[in-house]
Design brief:
Blueprint: H1 5-13, E1 24-25, E2 33-34, H2 40-46, E3 48-51, H3 63-75, H4 83-88, H5 90-94, H6 105-117, E4 123-127, H7 135-152, E5 155-159, H8 163-169, E6 172-177, E7 180-186, H9 192-199
Parallel strand pairs: 3-4, 4-5
Antiparallel strand pairs: 1-2, 6-7
Helix pairs in contact: 3-6
Length: 201
Amino acid sequence: PGMGKTTLVNCIAGYLPVESGSIMWHEAGKPPAELLALAPEHRAALGIGFLSQDRRIFSQLTVEENLRIAMLAATDQPGPLPEMIFDLFPELYALRHLRGADLSGDDQQLLALARALVNHPKLLILDEPTRGIGQGLIQKLSLLIVRLNRDFGLTVLLVEQRLSFIRRVADRFCLLHRGRAVARGSVAQLDNEKLTHWITP
């Protein structure tokens, strides 16, 4: 904790101001775009999906209303929810008329993730998605992240402290210490000795 991971992803998503530097968004075949001048909803429209630690669902709105608002924030065009959302989250379909406040913590996390995916992002940012959820959902999330990357071609930027989860889903890592990148490489190179070196006071 306190190493700058959440600050970094909130800056990318547009929820924290950046004092200096730049954040560039570059899709193949398109000119680079500077993100700093764009509000979070405009970054979402570009193709950035974000699951924050605090989930940011609307507790008094239903599951379906939460998803529709996420769509409207990025596209400003009402329309049907993508079929793939309830294909990926069949448990949410059964709960679609319940308010966010009436969902379990695990189902709230699924709803927050579905909101991040509803606009077909090209980059999905997950900020400690295993925090405060049950072991069964952790296993489900690991399979889902792998599927999103393999079957949908989605790039996933994962902020996570649970090493077992990282090893299941990630290809590459970047280790932050006091706001600086101190190690990076293939996840196969991420060992306990390397972590202990940087984590031990």
